[in-house]
């Protein structure tokens, strides 16, 4: 395929500036990407090893069963490699995140391998490995670096062994994931390419059983980068070279249509003695990018199967960029947690087709991957337990007790229903995840709607392969509006009769609280349970039916006592005095809890989720003891809660951001034109340490395009360098500062463009410039402290943030760092950041662009402001006339004070400045027409001066401090 069409075909330097950019959304995950140099020196006890990223969840065994499939004609020969684009950008975390709207995946049963696509060396994050392994899915990391990086990996030790091969095996074994995906898209010499191929061969000898090495169709054995879009005789040696196995699978590029490419792969595989299912024919499903267009039709997907029949696949399937359900413009979940229903609906559509019903084939349009691919069953032994938690939510429940908070943690994802959703019978009942009710975690499964008299709806939930004995029991935890023997029952399908289920009545509810029941399955001993379902039915009409499944457990004999594990997370770790904080309890297997909350107004609690307030500023520890009959477990988080004194209303403040989830959403702002400026004060706490090294300050990044931004860091520059980015004349232009900022220090930044030149100012001084021509088209969401992805957030503070639709002059920038008039020409938006304790940053320009503090709290207002601007505004009013003088920057930077006069009532204004001894050192009278924005000249000597403004009807004074 042509280089410009391939999503993989982006060099690492370009990757950092596009949708596939890699980064971590959590500092703790910083070594989940390594440089080749870091990999070559990696050891399990070294500084780049992260014990918190080690997964101990084993890979579940799968039993492929055709008989219980909704379509028993499907085939298990074809495998699926699922490759979201830029995993560290969306889910690069190790611990529970305080965000609901991160990328999530709930259809593990249809895939075999998930490629953790990241660069340069992308290591899968533990929560996703654990979720995948519970479902029997392998996760492989990515080796995606430049030419020198690959050359570095082929270094040999004294015995002639490839050091990089052993390191890759060591890293995968240490972290507990399942192999590597090689993406080599840099030109190598033939000799260098031969070394890389030999490294792959050695990996085959070193890797343990079950570890997989996948190769992407890019480089040929000669070292030339040439995408074949199939496996043919040119690239086949990267899979099999004579008798030598080079790779376990090949992921082909995706610029193909029709059947020719797939036919070629099948023929070539046979010629080299490999299975055609070792070839994963690639499909890039990102909207509008390649021939494999999603949600238009499945014509292209049918090409994988002879005669479009799911029974006769020809190769395996590789799906690139399925994260389009999250950030491909099909919903707004990535920027708006309230749009979660549309995100999950889009995920269901991906597999179930346009009709969102996996039980029937869509007559036209998109039929879904589930039409072709069978469910892989990982529920093969007892005990089996699920709480239906998808791994994120807007609440967190523990044994039904709810704490309200947004969160994401794939490590907490349960084994989810095999089919989403397989429903037959009355269409008046809907099925889905309920994000408002949960037994544990953030979700339950809900059936809701109405039923006519005698009607019923059956939902098949889980495909299983479970031998039932005389001692097998089933525990069910549930709630609802109408649930009882006549309205809800379990539908159990056994392998010896898959057409007629056995029904188990669910006992009636006394109220709408969670209830639990235990059912003996002894009557079905010596049979194999193949499908677990639930049926809503009623002899009489039900107008408001609802049934929630919160927990399901099958086991033999008496349920084994399991020792509790204490765990919790706070709704906020930085709060104000008097502001409540809730500790959401995510402990498992516990029946009672004891909280120790030193420093709080109530120092202990036995609630499931404890709530505390603190009267005194400080840093406090929190301890939770979780207990059950099987024992107790204690977790202490030292220095966990930071309590700050609340800034008084109207105080000069800045806004604090965490570099993870906190940002300000100012809505859509039109910055289009041939001239613009961005300016702000910034105080970084720290700079990003991993690719793409970006800390966003302000601006617009529309659809992943660098539209208009002021930020720190990028690929190719230091993370402490300022970068002014604008897409002018259809080209993205990037201007980096010469100056490098210092962490913990306030700096004023301004970027301007006048139609011919981009300029970057640091502390009022021109730092760098770049010639550019053309206009900007930017009419999109404008954010502070984040652009495009949470990984690019600012860890630090912002103050005095302004956007202009004209180019500021050097004199204006130098004079107005601490404030400007709200009525200044072409001031598009102006956030003074002095709005504590509100959760909105007011737009002082009057253009109605208030900034919503997102994932933030009142404790994020800080009295840490630029020392040059301790009081942004100093005002004295004459009571009779309302005459006011507003000073922008006090202490006064430089030798001129910028002031604005209000309330002069069209009268001339006399201004005079006196020193501390009362001597007048400057005097000027201005006409009424000029009495607005003025510059006042101060003497060279530092000290306190008094500025007096007078009209015929009044006088006001203000003190000026010159440093």
Automatic annotation (TrEMBL):
Domain PKD: 563-648
Keywords on record: Disulfide bond, Signal
Stretch forming the signal peptide: 1-23
Pfam annotation, one family: Laminin_G_3
Keyword Acyltransferase: no
PROSITE patterns: PKD
InterPro entries assigned: ConA-like_dom_sf, ENGase, Ig-like_fold, LamG-like, PKD/Chitinase_dom, PKD_dom, PKD_dom_sf, Secre_tail
PANTHER family per record: CYTOSOLIC ENDO-BETA-N-ACETYLGLUCOSAMINIDASE, ENDO BETA N-ACETYLGLUCOSAMINIDASE
Name by which UniProt lists this protein: LamG-like jellyroll fold domain-containing protein
